[in-house]
Amino acid sequence: MPITGDMILTASKYLLIALSLLIMLRCIRSMLSSGYEAETWATARWGRESVPVTHWENLIGRARSADIRIDREGLERVQAVLTRRDDGRWMLFDVFSRGGVAVDGRAVGAEGAELAAGSVARLGGVNLRLQDLGAEKSGALEEKRSFAGKRVSPALTLFELTVFELLLLAQHLLTSPETQPIQISLGFAVLILLEWFCYYAMRLIGRSGFEVETIAFYLTGLGVSVTASAAPQDMFRQSLLILAAFVLFLLLGLWLRDLRRSEALRPFAALLALGLLALNVFTSDTLNGARSWLSIGGFSFQPSELVKVAYVYVGASTLEKLYRRGNLIVFIVFSAVCVGALALIGDFGSALVFFICFLVISFLRSGSIATVFLAVSGAAMAGFLAVSIKPYIARRFAVWGHVWEDVYGAGYQQTRALGAAAAGGLFGKGAGGGWLTDIVAADTDMVFAVLCEEEGIIIACCAVLAVLTLSFFAVRTARRARSAYYSIAACAAVTLLMAQMALNVFGSLDLLPFTGVTFPFVSRGGSSLLACWMLMAFIKGADTRRGGSFVVRPAAQLWSAAKPKAQKKGGRGA
């Protein structure tokens, strides 16, 4: 019996599901199931006791949550913060303790004091000394850390992802052979070449962990498929955007290696974010009740997407600065201005996403449920006012749960999305075989329904699982991250991705009011894609697994950077 196109299409559906599940299971196994051995950067000693220093930032005090716990009378619950600079120096900061902190008899001021080899820190009657392991040894430890369980080969997972994307391309060529075949093939070819380039580039800089990038490329591949279905004529432009997004991911990741530099740029990032929002408020035109888009030189983009990256960058902070209440107040004011600007331009969905992210950052920075409760109370009143003032927002709430009562009016988009998702079933109609992409904004605001129709509910759920995996991974690594900056940034980044995904999925299925928020990586749109890839840099930076993070430099590089300073100051180690 001759093999027909329908037979190939059916077989490819089953293979796509099998590969999708396999890719996700391998990433989950590698990211969430591996054992962990803490990095040891130095040893803190007092009297006859000593503890290993396993973070770049460490709380010192009597509290059980302290990284260096000294259970002695006269010491406060949190007395000081010990941090490791990028050049290998250790700095000690007093966090407004009553007893004060001194190094070699000199009181530690707001700028901190260096705790070098041979120096003695006085904390509430306790003399603390620090023995640094040296950059060369610390780097070697980082390279030699072991994991319980079996390793998952990133190259094999990437090969499976490549086959997955080739099958998506084959489905497009089968379902719509006359629709821009060259452009669609070129788009998938660029994506596959970029994946393998990224893999070898990471190997070149000594990074062996590739699961975060694999998930990003998996979702981006689904996004390329959506673009091929909805707007195949834009495949070349989409390929350029993917290239630009990847370059920004690398640049931001390398920039995050230097915490002092990252901290110094936070005010400029805040000004940039406010400037972009100001352009939105005063110059953009109204579209569908909101002024979300800016057009410059014929190129349209959504500033709120890029502001997300700046917001995370500004919201994260190092440990010694988290105890300065003024910093939290400034961040709250900055957040209020951002959310207020989004409310003015009528971008209700983005304002909600920003607010959810604000709650997470506020809790991580303050540890106070009361602060979060006050913020939620204020937002509830502001939300009630927005619904009262903005008629189109009120209409979306009125339609919620009643879309079938007006299938040709207010419920037109969502009823079509629900029908298409149901028609796709478990296995879908095949990439390019759906009709929902003909509906306005289906490839952006209702892209989950597009996935359900074309690829089936199983692969659509795998896309949701991919974002959930990133979230669990970020929370898991946050507890042992090298710096509070990386912990907060990673948790804030996955909060944005999770909130967007939830609003897109539940809005498409009428389980929540329709907000017009994109699905990370999958929805068609340049601004959203750039922002999502840059947010991945924060998650990658927080990775504490062997060879997983951007921020740990190779041992030789650390040693060469720290050695001149060590020689200059009397051979102190890194």
Task: Please explain how this structure is put together.
With 574 residues, the protein is α+β, with helices and mostly antiparallel strands. The protein folds into two domains: 102 residues, Tumour Suppressor Smad4 (Sandwich); 391 residues, no CATH class. Helices cover 58% and strands 9% of the residues. The protein is built from 20 helices and 13 strands. It has a six-stranded antiparallel beta sheet, with no helix packed on it. A hairpin with a 2-residue loop joins strand 12 and strand 13. Helix 9 runs parallel beside helix 12 and helix 11 runs antiparallel to helix 12. The longest helix is centred in the N-terminal third of the chain and has 28 residues. The N and C termini lie far apart (71 Å). The C terminus is likely disordered.
